[in-house]
Amino acid sequence: MGIEEHLGDNIITASLDKIVSWGRKWSIWPATFGLACCAIEMMTTASSRYDFDRLGLIFRSSPRQSDLIIVSGRVSYKMAPMVKRIYDQMPNPKWVIAMGDCACSGGLFNVYSIVQGVDRIIPVDVYVPGCPPRPEALIYGIVKLQEKIGKGTIKHEAPPQIIR
Amino acid sequence: MDVNFALAVIKESMQKKIVAAGNVNRDAYIQIQKEDLLEFADFFKNDPRLKFDMLSDLFAVDYPKRPERIEVIYNFYSVVNNFRIFIKIRSKIDESEYPSLTSFYNSANWFEREVYDMFGLKFKGHPDLKRILNPDDWDGHPLLKDYPLRKRPEPEEIEMDRPGYIELDKI
Questions:
Q1: pTM for this one?
Q2: Are B37 and B98 in contact (CB under 8 A)?
């Protein structure tokens, strides 16, 4: 049965893609970044009752050490350059969760000052609707993101582009 | 002492300069001309019977159907005597220059910047009259009733080089 015959019983072989994706999906490090009331819900999800740590999510205080940004709240046109800048500072591979109605589509703020969905600025992987979403909803979004990361590859891919 | 005492004191001293006065829901208001505002503020702050030592709010309202569209409302509060009074000034939109109260009340600084940002009223004598809520390069004054409700910049128009933004590819 191939190379495994020669390696003995205490070595397991697997494809490198699966190993690396497995490592990535159980060690997603989100940037410490909150915008509005959804950020309070995100903090609740991170703290002991719901507990991000058991999924391997540990908030990092620098975008340069993180690979996930949870856009938690409405993005105003004044804040948009900062969101974009934090996203650009994160190293590849990187993922984005749009948390809450406002980050998904502008929500109830159909007004002059709010960006109508953060996907106009940065490419979004998972949308979590709700106003604000329950911690269970956010955790479901994380699980969906983990599924997506699990199908990933270690080959160099071009960073995702905004679809307009 | 309640606000009716204050109203009586003001009416006694400034009778000729009051356009209208009254009570709404136990709050007193006085309507004046904007040329007299500095005189009123000086009187409110320094009169020993009134001692309005705090400007607790300053805001504007746009009534598009009135000939004098803009109404600016000043909310003075006396911490010593525990009463407050509202000063109302009406003006046309093209006569949008007001005297600044920053020489009497420091809290007027940011209030006046907010009114300037949202309504475009100029405050003469303000030390640093610039936008406070909207981005510095914003177009128009959003709380005016003729500002388009859903006017937004296109995503391509958002300047991503503010503040101190550097394209990472170019480093």
A1: 0.80
A2: yes
